[in-house]
Amino acid sequence: MGEAFLAYTALTTFVIAFIMRFDQLVFGVLFGADVATAIEPVLFAILVANAMAIYRSYYFEQASHLTESSNVFLLTAVLGFAVLVVSSLLLIPSYGMLGAALGVLLGHVAGCLVYAIAWRKRFIMKLPYLRSAIIAGVAGGTYVLTGWIMQIGSGGVLATIASVALFAATSIGVARAFNILSLNDLAAGALVMMRRKLTQRRSPEAN
Known about the structure:
mainly alpha, flat, Polysaccharide biosynthesis protein C-terminal domain-containing protein, transmembrane helix
């Protein structure tokens, strides 16, 4: 459970940081400059809402299936939907698209809180919060550094390439440091396979 939580933390924080840094590039290529400009004011709220949806759907709800906690699952669905509807009705008239994004975010937050309260003595207290905070800090630091690089390079091609490379390096470094997705185990296994192949090739030559 802890390893999965770290994996989701790394995924969500680095994706949010990357998209926030290259929002015009990503959405401009996919949907056009007009769409990229239109969603820029609400982009962070949308990304955080999606991150909470990932935690709720792919982490907590998977745990719910494993523990067969159908009552918690039902309560989460009902309360999350109720918060979504009420907050949307209150926020959308005043804040428009931002209000809609915040409504979705609050709905997912409410759902996650139900799981957190229900499992506070089973899973929640044992989650790797410190390591997750370090991962989020690295993602945030990468966002700041790439902003500095883009500013110095005037947003040019070289600055963009350097920034993307920095994101790749830090994300891989985090995955290695915390063995996310068993990356270290995969690397060790690949090294063992390479050594075996080299040994097999040398054996006929020795004979």
